[in-house]
Glycosyltransferase, family 2 (Natronolimnohabitans innermongolicus JCM 12255), 329 residues
Amino acid sequence: MTLVSVLVPTYDRPEYIEGAVETALGQTHDEIEVVIVCDPPSDDTRRVLESYADDDRVRPLYNDERRGISGSRNRALEYARGEFVCILDDDDRWAPTKVEKQLAVMADNPACGVVYTGGVAKRGGRTVDTYTPSLRGDIYPEILAGFDCKPYSGHMYRAECFETVGGYDTEFDCGEDWDLTIRVAREYEYEYVDEPLVVRQYHDRNVSELAAVEQREQLHRDLDEATDVCGRIWSKYRDDITSNPGIERRFRHGRQINSAWTELDQNNRRRALRYGLQATRHDPSVASLALCCFAVVGPSVVDHIRTVRDTVVDSRSRVADAGELQTVE
């Protein structure tokens, strides 16, 4: 039977790593190895992983010093023995049939290098976002416009992809997933399983006023990171992006949308409006026009709209969750 390697980087989060190991070992496809890279390990993480000492499917590796997400994934790749490689963040979870369904798509599409899946994002048990696959076949240069193959924990690679394009770029301490996807898409086709087989877990910080502040600070970091990733992708692939005017227009639009949200969440309404207007010039979309309105009315209205949006998304998800994702919880 085909061996599948699951790569799990982790950094000082012992409360999540056991769940990651179990969701990988709980697949209906039996031939699984879980390669965990602790960057570096805490004593608590080491104790959790020592409980798997008698299970040769679980292979923990311990960095002596911090290598970052790209360096840790590259180290896991060095030790992976599978014909196929799956990515799994330590706080994400899979439906039991995820790997089996991806392998079936791989078998039917020999030119395909990657099969990814749909998924949902949950916070405190509520669904706050959904990921529906849309890109397939030759997705280059489309992928330059934005990373539309989420969630990344839904990606399965043929191991040969890494031999062809190399590993993760260690110059990227975030956005390494988008960068690798661009390089692989130049050489291989992409396919997907159109089912929500991955759960991303946004950690519930809504239990106190202090937690609400922490949630906003985390949102600021996420938005800053998104803006920074766009800058790094632009620096590395500028010639590729600018040689495709439609791609460049969409890339700039997405970058300015991210910048506008960053400024808006910091209550810099004038700068948010400027970015929103720039985004509108590239693409007068609902998102860019809405941002311009939000910049005028202020972030309190934005918070209310987010709450309504999350409630609607969660209500729709509760209907859909009668299916397989119930087994992920």
